[in-house]
Write a structure and sequence with these properties.
Elements: H1 10-19, H2 26-36, E1 41-44, H3 51-69, E2 76-80, H4 84-97, E3 105-108, H5 115-121, E4 127-130, H6 132-140, E5 149-154, H7 157-162, H8 166-174, E6 181-186, H9 191-200, E7 205-208, H10 213-218, E8 220-225, H11 231-241, E9 247-250, H12 254-266, E10 271-274, H13 280-291, E11 297-300, H14 302-305, E12 315-318, H15 325-332, E13 343-348, H16 353-363, H17 392-398
Parallel strand pairs: 1-6, 1-7, 2-4, 2-5, 3-4, 5-6, 8-13, 9-11, 9-12, 10-11, 12-13
Helix pairs in contact: 2-3, 3-4, 6-8, 15-16
The structure holds adenosine monophosphate (AMP).
The site of adenosine monophosphate has 13 residues, from helix 3.
Protein backbone atom coordinates (compact mmCIF):
# COMPACT_ATOMS: atom_id res chain seq x y z
CA UNK A 1 0.00 0.00 0.00
CA UNK A 2 1.24 3.45 -0.90
CA UNK A 3 -0.02 6.90 0.05
CA UNK A 4 -0.80 7.32 -3.66
CA UNK A 5 -3.65 4.81 -3.30
CA UNK A 6 -5.45 6.85 -0.67
CA UNK A 7 -7.02 9.50 -2.95
CA UNK A 8 -4.99 12.28 -1.39
CA UNK A 9 -4.52 15.64 -3.11
CA UNK A 10 -1.13 16.55 -4.57
CA UNK A 11 -0.07 19.11 -1.91
CA UNK A 12 -0.56 16.48 0.81
CA UNK A 13 1.28 13.79 -1.14
CA UNK A 14 4.14 16.20 -1.64
CA UNK A 15 4.33 17.02 2.07
CA UNK A 16 4.17 13.33 2.98
CA UNK A 17 6.91 12.51 0.53
CA UNK A 18 9.08 15.20 2.13
CA UNK A 19 8.73 13.47 5.51
CA UNK A 20 10.30 10.39 4.00
CA UNK A 21 7.42 8.06 4.93
CA UNK A 22 7.28 5.34 2.36
CA UNK A 23 3.92 3.77 3.16
CA UNK A 24 0.97 4.40 5.43
CA UNK A 25 0.91 2.67 8.80
CA UNK A 26 -2.01 0.23 9.41
CA UNK A 27 -4.07 2.84 11.23
CA UNK A 28 -3.50 5.34 8.44
CA UNK A 29 -4.50 2.78 5.83
CA UNK A 30 -7.86 2.33 7.54
CA UNK A 31 -8.50 5.76 8.95
CA UNK A 32 -7.62 8.02 6.00
CA UNK A 33 -10.30 6.61 3.62
CA UNK A 34 -12.93 6.53 6.40
CA UNK A 35 -12.28 10.14 7.43
CA UNK A 36 -12.28 11.28 3.80
CA UNK A 37 -15.73 9.69 3.48
CA UNK A 38 -16.77 11.82 6.47
CA UNK A 39 -17.48 8.78 8.59
CA UNK A 40 -17.28 8.81 12.37
CA UNK A 41 -14.43 6.78 13.79
CA UNK A 42 -13.66 4.83 16.95
CA UNK A 43 -9.96 4.03 16.90
CA UNK A 44 -8.19 2.07 19.56
CA UNK A 45 -4.56 2.98 19.04
CA UNK A 46 -1.68 4.46 20.95
CA UNK A 47 0.98 6.97 20.12
CA UNK A 48 3.65 5.48 17.96
CA UNK A 49 1.16 3.93 15.55
CA UNK A 50 1.06 7.01 13.33
CA UNK A 51 -2.38 7.95 14.66
CA UNK A 52 -1.84 11.70 14.45
CA UNK A 53 -1.28 11.59 10.70
CA UNK A 54 -4.24 9.23 10.42
CA UNK A 55 -6.58 12.08 11.31
CA UNK A 56 -4.47 15.15 10.46
CA UNK A 57 -3.92 14.23 6.81
CA UNK A 58 -7.56 13.51 5.85
CA UNK A 59 -8.87 16.45 7.91
CA UNK A 60 -6.49 18.78 6.09
CA UNK A 61 -7.81 17.40 2.83
CA UNK A 62 -11.49 17.81 3.80
CA UNK A 63 -10.97 21.40 4.98
CA UNK A 64 -8.90 22.21 1.89
CA UNK A 65 -11.57 20.82 -0.43
CA UNK A 66 -14.33 22.67 1.40
CA UNK A 67 -12.39 25.90 0.90
CA UNK A 68 -11.82 25.16 -2.75
CA UNK A 69 -15.50 24.50 -3.36
CA UNK A 70 -16.58 27.54 -1.38
CA UNK A 71 -13.90 30.09 -0.46
CA UNK A 72 -16.25 31.52 2.17
CA UNK A 73 -16.59 28.12 3.83
CA UNK A 74 -16.35 28.51 7.58
CA UNK A 75 -15.90 24.83 8.47
CA UNK A 76 -13.38 24.18 11.20
CA UNK A 77 -11.87 21.20 12.98
CA UNK A 78 -11.37 20.94 16.72
CA UNK A 79 -8.87 18.50 18.19
CA UNK A 80 -9.26 18.00 21.95
CA UNK A 81 -6.22 16.61 23.73
CA UNK A 82 -5.28 15.94 27.36
CA UNK A 83 -1.92 17.69 27.54
CA UNK A 84 0.01 20.66 26.33
CA UNK A 85 2.76 18.39 25.01
CA UNK A 86 0.31 16.50 22.87
CA UNK A 87 -1.25 19.74 21.62
CA UNK A 88 2.19 20.96 20.52
CA UNK A 89 3.06 17.62 19.00
CA UNK A 90 -0.14 17.57 16.97
CA UNK A 91 0.33 21.20 15.91
CA UNK A 92 3.79 20.23 14.65
CA UNK A 93 2.21 17.43 12.61
CA UNK A 94 -0.28 19.85 11.04
CA UNK A 95 2.62 22.16 10.15
CA UNK A 96 4.43 19.31 8.42
CA UNK A 97 1.50 17.79 6.52
CA UNK A 98 -0.19 21.11 5.76
CA UNK A 99 2.99 22.73 4.46
CA UNK A 100 1.64 23.19 0.92
CA UNK A 101 -1.92 24.11 1.88
CA UNK A 102 -3.14 27.47 3.06
CA UNK A 103 -4.94 26.31 6.19
CA UNK A 104 -4.26 27.81 9.59
CA UNK A 105 -3.96 25.85 12.80
CA UNK A 106 -3.51 26.97 16.37
CA UNK A 107 -2.72 25.15 19.60
CA UNK A 108 -4.22 26.51 22.81
CA UNK A 109 -3.38 25.08 26.22
CA UNK A 110 -3.09 26.10 29.84
CA UNK A 111 -0.02 26.79 31.96
CA UNK A 112 1.02 29.76 29.83
CA UNK A 113 -0.34 33.26 29.43
CA UNK A 114 -3.48 33.32 27.35
CA UNK A 115 -2.60 36.66 25.78
CA UNK A 116 -0.93 35.40 22.60
CA UNK A 117 -3.57 32.68 22.20
CA UNK A 118 -6.38 35.24 22.44
CA UNK A 119 -4.61 37.42 19.91
CA UNK A 120 -4.13 34.51 17.51
CA UNK A 121 -7.82 33.66 17.82
CA UNK A 122 -8.74 37.05 16.41
CA UNK A 123 -7.59 35.73 13.05
CA UNK A 124 -9.41 32.96 11.24
CA UNK A 125 -8.26 29.51 12.40
CA UNK A 126 -9.16 26.36 10.47
CA UNK A 127 -7.86 23.79 12.91
CA UNK A 128 -7.93 24.36 16.62
CA UNK A 129 -5.94 22.01 18.83
CA UNK A 130 -6.86 22.51 22.47
CA UNK A 131 -6.74 21.19 25.99
CA UNK A 132 -10.22 21.23 27.53
CA UNK A 133 -9.55 23.58 30.48
CA UNK A 134 -8.03 26.46 28.51
CA UNK A 135 -10.58 26.06 25.73
CA UNK A 136 -13.44 26.38 28.23
CA UNK A 137 -11.79 29.43 29.83
CA UNK A 138 -11.55 31.14 26.47
CA UNK A 139 -15.10 30.13 25.56
CA UNK A 140 -16.39 31.62 28.82
CA UNK A 141 -14.54 34.83 28.06
CA UNK A 142 -16.16 34.97 24.64
CA UNK A 143 -12.81 34.76 22.82
CA UNK A 144 -14.11 32.19 20.35
CA UNK A 145 -17.14 30.28 19.26
CA UNK A 146 -17.48 26.64 18.30
CA UNK A 147 -20.46 27.05 15.97
CA UNK A 148 -18.40 26.36 12.82
CA UNK A 149 -16.82 23.14 14.03
CA UNK A 150 -17.60 20.44 11.48
CA UNK A 151 -14.99 17.91 12.58
CA UNK A 152 -14.17 16.93 16.14
CA UNK A 153 -11.28 14.72 17.23
CA UNK A 154 -11.02 13.45 20.79
CA UNK A 155 -7.43 12.30 21.05
CA UNK A 156 -6.17 10.07 23.86
CA UNK A 157 -9.73 10.01 25.17
CA UNK A 158 -8.93 7.51 27.93
CA UNK A 159 -6.18 9.74 29.25
CA UNK A 160 -8.52 12.69 29.11
CA UNK A 161 -10.92 10.77 31.34
CA UNK A 162 -8.12 9.60 33.66
CA UNK A 163 -7.01 13.18 34.09
CA UNK A 164 -10.50 14.20 35.17
CA UNK A 165 -11.41 16.23 32.09
CA UNK A 166 -14.72 14.50 31.41
CA UNK A 167 -16.86 17.37 32.75
CA UNK A 168 -14.93 19.95 30.77
CA UNK A 169 -15.19 17.77 27.67
CA UNK A 170 -18.96 17.41 28.14
CA UNK A 171 -19.36 21.17 28.51
CA UNK A 172 -17.43 21.67 25.27
CA UNK A 173 -19.45 18.99 23.46
CA UNK A 174 -22.63 20.80 24.44
CA UNK A 175 -21.45 23.85 22.51
CA UNK A 176 -20.68 22.00 19.29
CA UNK A 177 -23.05 21.77 16.35
CA UNK A 178 -24.68 18.34 16.23
CA UNK A 179 -24.05 18.09 12.48
CA UNK A 180 -20.41 17.13 12.52
CA UNK A 181 -17.93 14.33 12.03
CA UNK A 182 -16.50 12.90 15.24
CA UNK A 183 -13.33 10.86 15.56
CA UNK A 184 -12.44 9.27 18.86
CA UNK A 185 -8.93 7.94 19.49
CA UNK A 186 -8.10 6.05 22.65
CA UNK A 187 -5.27 3.75 23.70
CA UNK A 188 -7.69 1.61 25.68
CA UNK A 189 -11.44 1.12 25.54
CA UNK A 190 -12.69 0.98 29.13
CA UNK A 191 -16.49 1.03 29.70
CA UNK A 192 -16.56 4.83 30.20
CA UNK A 193 -15.04 5.36 26.78
CA UNK A 194 -17.46 2.95 25.15
CA UNK A 195 -20.32 4.79 26.86
CA UNK A 196 -19.00 8.13 25.65
CA UNK A 197 -18.50 6.80 22.14
CA UNK A 198 -22.06 5.44 22.05
CA UNK A 199 -23.43 8.91 22.75
CA UNK A 200 -21.03 10.74 20.44
CA UNK A 201 -20.47 8.61 17.38
CA UNK A 202 -22.89 7.79 14.58
CA UNK A 203 -22.32 4.35 13.05
CA UNK A 204 -18.60 4.68 13.51
CA UNK A 205 -15.96 2.83 11.59
CA UNK A 206 -14.06 0.83 14.21
CA UNK A 207 -10.32 0.32 14.08
CA UNK A 208 -8.17 -1.48 16.62
CA UNK A 209 -4.40 -1.41 16.42
CA UNK A 210 -2.85 -3.55 19.14
CA UNK A 211 0.80 -3.28 20.07
CA UNK A 212 2.58 -5.80 18.00
CA UNK A 213 3.58 -8.75 20.13
CA UNK A 214 5.98 -9.84 17.44
CA UNK A 215 7.89 -6.59 17.79
CA UNK A 216 8.20 -7.20 21.49
CA UNK A 217 9.20 -10.82 21.02
CA UNK A 218 12.01 -9.93 18.65
CA UNK A 219 13.65 -7.70 21.19
CA UNK A 220 16.02 -9.01 23.81
CA UNK A 221 14.71 -7.54 27.04
CA UNK A 222 16.29 -7.46 30.45
CA UNK A 223 15.54 -5.97 33.80
CA UNK A 224 17.81 -4.57 36.49
CA UNK A 225 16.32 -4.13 39.94
CA UNK A 226 18.04 -1.20 41.53
CA UNK A 227 17.52 1.85 43.66
CA UNK A 228 16.83 5.35 42.46
CA UNK A 229 20.22 6.67 43.56
CA UNK A 230 22.05 3.78 41.88
CA UNK A 231 20.52 4.26 38.46
CA UNK A 232 23.14 6.66 37.12
CA UNK A 233 26.12 4.55 38.30
CA UNK A 234 24.40 1.50 36.81
CA UNK A 235 23.86 3.30 33.52
CA UNK A 236 27.50 4.37 33.44
CA UNK A 237 28.58 0.86 34.25
CA UNK A 238 26.55 -0.56 31.37
CA UNK A 239 27.74 2.09 28.94
CA UNK A 240 31.34 1.45 29.92
CA UNK A 241 31.25 -2.33 29.99
CA UNK A 242 28.46 -3.78 27.95
CA UNK A 243 29.53 -3.11 24.38
CA UNK A 244 26.77 -0.56 23.91
CA UNK A 245 27.57 1.52 20.86
CA UNK A 246 24.60 3.84 20.88
CA UNK A 247 21.65 4.10 23.19
CA UNK A 248 18.37 5.89 23.52
CA UNK A 249 17.75 6.39 27.23
CA UNK A 250 14.22 7.14 28.40
CA UNK A 251 13.51 9.37 31.37
CA UNK A 252 10.10 10.18 32.77
CA UNK A 253 10.58 13.92 33.13
CA UNK A 254 12.32 16.70 31.25
CA UNK A 255 14.28 17.56 34.36
CA UNK A 256 15.32 13.93 34.75
CA UNK A 257 16.43 13.70 31.12
CA UNK A 258 18.51 16.83 31.49
CA UNK A 259 20.16 15.58 34.68
CA UNK A 260 21.01 12.17 33.26
CA UNK A 261 22.58 13.70 30.14
CA UNK A 262 24.58 16.12 32.29
CA UNK A 263 25.91 13.29 34.46
CA UNK A 264 26.88 11.26 31.41
CA UNK A 265 28.73 14.19 29.89
CA UNK A 266 30.54 14.77 33.18
CA UNK A 267 31.67 11.16 33.06
CA UNK A 268 33.06 11.59 29.59
CA UNK A 269 30.20 10.06 27.61
CA UNK A 270 28.94 12.07 24.67
CA UNK A 271 25.28 12.56 25.42
CA UNK A 272 22.45 15.02 24.85
CA UNK A 273 18.94 15.39 26.20
CA UNK A 274 15.92 16.01 24.02
CA UNK A 275 12.64 17.04 25.59
CA UNK A 276 9.78 19.48 25.27
CA UNK A 277 11.68 22.42 26.72
CA UNK A 278 14.27 22.26 23.96
CA UNK A 279 13.57 24.15 20.80
CA UNK A 280 12.79 22.16 17.71
CA UNK A 281 16.12 23.21 16.19
CA UNK A 282 18.07 22.13 19.29
CA UNK A 283 16.35 18.75 19.13
CA UNK A 284 17.10 18.39 15.44
CA UNK A 285 20.75 19.25 16.04
CA UNK A 286 21.03 16.60 18.76
CA UNK A 287 19.39 14.06 16.47
CA UNK A 288 21.75 14.91 13.67
CA UNK A 289 24.74 14.54 16.01
CA UNK A 290 23.38 11.21 17.14
CA UNK A 291 22.85 9.99 13.58
CA UNK A 292 26.34 11.01 12.57
CA UNK A 293 27.91 9.37 15.61
CA UNK A 294 29.02 12.54 17.38
CA UNK A 295 26.70 11.73 20.24
CA UNK A 296 26.54 8.25 21.67
CA UNK A 297 23.59 8.55 24.00
CA UNK A 298 20.34 10.42 23.56
CA UNK A 299 18.31 10.91 26.70
CA UNK A 300 14.68 11.57 25.88
CA UNK A 301 11.23 11.94 27.33
CA UNK A 302 8.47 9.97 25.64
CA UNK A 303 6.95 12.95 23.90
CA UNK A 304 10.27 14.17 22.53
CA UNK A 305 11.25 10.69 21.41
CA UNK A 306 8.23 10.30 19.17
CA UNK A 307 9.82 12.05 16.29
CA UNK A 308 12.94 9.92 16.49
CA UNK A 309 13.29 7.54 13.65
CA UNK A 310 16.78 6.19 13.57
CA UNK A 311 17.56 2.96 11.86
CA UNK A 312 19.55 0.49 13.85
CA UNK A 313 19.10 2.07 17.23
CA UNK A 314 21.44 -0.14 19.21
CA UNK A 315 19.95 -0.17 22.66
CA UNK A 316 16.94 1.29 24.35
CA UNK A 317 17.41 1.85 28.07
CA UNK A 318 14.46 2.57 30.32
CA UNK A 319 16.16 4.60 33.03
CA UNK A 320 12.67 5.13 34.41
CA UNK A 321 9.86 2.71 33.73
CA UNK A 322 6.82 4.32 32.12
CA UNK A 323 3.61 4.41 34.12
CA UNK A 324 1.57 3.69 30.99
CA UNK A 325 2.40 0.11 29.99
CA UNK A 326 1.84 0.65 26.26
CA UNK A 327 4.59 3.26 26.37
CA UNK A 328 7.03 0.47 27.21
CA UNK A 329 6.13 -1.31 23.99
CA UNK A 330 6.60 1.89 22.01
CA UNK A 331 9.89 2.67 23.65
CA UNK A 332 11.44 -0.70 23.07
CA UNK A 333 10.00 -0.74 19.56
CA UNK A 334 12.56 1.97 18.82
CA UNK A 335 15.19 -0.71 18.80
CA UNK A 336 14.81 -3.75 16.60
CA UNK A 337 13.19 -1.94 13.72
CA UNK A 338 12.83 -3.27 10.22
CA UNK A 339 13.33 -6.87 11.19
CA UNK A 340 16.55 -6.27 13.11
CA UNK A 341 16.49 -7.59 16.64
CA UNK A 342 17.22 -5.04 19.30
CA UNK A 343 18.14 -4.86 22.94
CA UNK A 344 16.04 -3.19 25.61
CA UNK A 345 17.28 -2.74 29.14
CA UNK A 346 15.04 -1.53 31.96
CA UNK A 347 15.83 -0.28 35.43
CA UNK A 348 13.22 -0.80 38.11
CA UNK A 349 13.31 0.74 41.56
CA UNK A 350 10.94 0.03 44.43
CA UNK A 351 8.39 2.64 43.42
CA UNK A 352 8.27 1.37 39.85
CA UNK A 353 7.31 -2.19 40.68
CA UNK A 354 3.58 -1.60 40.05
CA UNK A 355 4.48 -0.21 36.60
CA UNK A 356 6.53 -3.33 35.93
CA UNK A 357 3.57 -5.51 36.82
CA UNK A 358 1.34 -3.64 34.37
CA UNK A 359 3.96 -3.88 31.63
CA UNK A 360 4.44 -7.62 32.10
CA UNK A 361 0.69 -8.10 32.02
CA UNK A 362 0.45 -6.22 28.74
CA UNK A 363 3.32 -8.00 27.01
CA UNK A 364 2.29 -11.30 28.56
CA UNK A 365 5.77 -12.23 29.59
CA UNK A 366 8.17 -11.84 32.46
CA UNK A 367 11.18 -9.76 31.59
CA UNK A 368 14.36 -11.70 32.44
CA UNK A 369 16.09 -10.27 35.50
CA UNK A 370 19.83 -9.64 35.49
CA UNK A 371 21.22 -10.48 38.90
CA UNK A 372 24.46 -9.80 40.68
CA UNK A 373 25.17 -6.64 38.79
CA UNK A 374 26.36 -4.83 41.87
CA UNK A 375 23.71 -2.10 41.92
CA UNK A 376 20.84 -4.06 43.39
CA UNK A 377 18.18 -3.12 45.86
CA UNK A 378 19.50 -3.01 49.42
CA UNK A 379 18.49 -5.73 51.88
CA UNK A 380 15.92 -3.66 53.74
CA UNK A 381 13.94 -2.82 50.62
CA UNK A 382 14.34 -6.06 48.83
CA UNK A 383 11.21 -7.96 47.88
CA UNK A 384 12.36 -9.69 44.74
CA UNK A 385 14.65 -12.69 44.78
CA UNK A 386 17.71 -10.69 43.79
CA UNK A 387 20.92 -12.12 45.14
CA UNK A 388 22.32 -9.57 47.51
CA UNK A 389 26.05 -10.04 47.76
CA UNK A 390 27.85 -10.15 44.48
CA UNK A 391 31.07 -12.09 44.52
CA UNK A 392 33.88 -9.96 45.87
CA UNK A 393 35.64 -9.84 42.51
CA UNK A 394 32.48 -8.85 40.79
CA UNK A 395 31.84 -6.16 43.32
CA UNK A 396 35.26 -4.67 42.86
CA UNK A 397 34.91 -4.86 39.12
CA UNK A 398 31.79 -2.73 39.32
CA UNK A 399 33.76 -0.30 41.41
CA UNK A 400 30.79 0.80 43.41
CA UNK A 401 29.91 0.40 47.02
CA UNK A 402 26.16 0.28 46.94
CA UNK A 403 25.66 0.47 50.67
CA UNK A 404 27.38 3.77 51.08
CA UNK A 405 26.67 5.01 47.59
CA UNK A 406 30.34 5.85 47.20
CA UNK A 407 33.15 4.48 45.21
CA UNK A 408 35.37 2.32 47.40
CA UNK A 409 38.91 3.41 48.07
CA UNK A 410 41.19 2.10 45.35
CA UNK A 411 42.60 -1.28 46.20
CA UNK A 412 46.06 -2.32 45.32
P1 LIG B 1 2.04 9.13 16.36
O1 LIG B 1 1.46 7.76 16.60
O2 LIG B 1 1.09 10.02 15.65
O3 LIG B 1 2.55 9.73 17.63
O4 LIG B 1 3.28 8.96 15.38
C1 LIG B 1 4.44 8.28 15.76
C2 LIG B 1 5.61 8.57 14.84
O5 LIG B 1 5.45 7.91 13.61
C3 LIG B 1 5.83 10.03 14.51
O6 LIG B 1 7.20 10.29 14.71
C4 LIG B 1 5.50 10.16 13.06
O7 LIG B 1 6.31 11.13 12.44
C5 LIG B 1 5.81 8.78 12.54
N1 LIG B 1 4.97 8.38 11.39
C6 LIG B 1 3.69 8.69 11.16
N2 LIG B 1 3.26 8.11 10.01
C7 LIG B 1 4.30 7.43 9.51
C8 LIG B 1 4.48 6.61 8.34
N3 LIG B 1 3.50 6.39 7.48
N4 LIG B 1 5.70 6.07 8.13
C9 LIG B 1 6.70 6.27 9.02
N5 LIG B 1 6.60 7.01 10.14
C10 LIG B 1 5.41 7.59 10.39
Amino acid sequence: MSFNNLSLVAPLLRAISETGYTSPTPIQEHSIPAVLQKKDLLACAQTGTGKTASFAIPLLQLLHQQKQQDPRSEGQALILVPTRELALQIAENFTVYGKFLSLKHLAIFGGVSQHSQVKALQQRVDILIATPGRLLDLLHQGCLSLRDIRHLVLDEADRMLDMGFIHDVKKILAQLPSERQTLLFSATLPPEILKLSATLLKQPEKITITPSATTVDRILQSLYYTEKQHKTPLLLHLLNNDGIKTALVFARTKYGAEKIARNLVRSGIKAAAIHGNKSQSARQTSLLHFRTGHIRVLVATDIAARGIDIEEMGHVINYDLPNVPETYVHRIGRTGRAGASGIAISFCDQEEKPYLQDIQKLIRKTIPVIRDHGFEVSATDQQEPVKMQPAAGNHRKNGFNKRKGKRPAPTA
